[in-house]
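Sanity check record (used in CI):
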Amino acid sequence: GGMGGGMGRRDDRACHNCGRTGHLARDCRTGGGARGYDAPRGRAPRAPRAAKTAGQDDVCNRCNQAGHWARDCPQPDTRPESERGRQPGDKDKCRNCGAEGHFARDCPEPKDTSCRICKQEGHFARECPQKNTAAAANMDADLDNYMKEGAKGTGEA
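Expected output for CCHC-type domain-containing protein:
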């Protein structure tokens, strides 16, 4: 018992991904986690899934009302700025609409749910089956640019 960090019984709260208890969404074997609940490393990618919407029993962490999550809360965020994370500057670009001055989490436009790598719906870039291929292509392009420009500023002291 006691105040130990990771020992003891699992949390009784439901997973935000599948609704079952005993694990967190990041560990969920039905999709959305880093690897999937107890899944072996190197497993084949999951099939794309739709974004989960809050049910009647899901409670918002901002206003404590049931039926929605904080990301969809109609109430203004009243936390002090120091607790909200970095605020956008004039040159910060939204990854949803491309406009400057706000982050995607605050974007007034409909959310772009397509993958930034392959532009397909149903998964995000971190889950993209083409992620490693895209990363390799970017590294090849970076290497090509490096070779064209030469190794500037190296070797001579």
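Residues 1-10, 32-41 have pLDDT under 50 and may be disordered. If this sentence no longer matches the regenerated tokens, the check is flagged for review.
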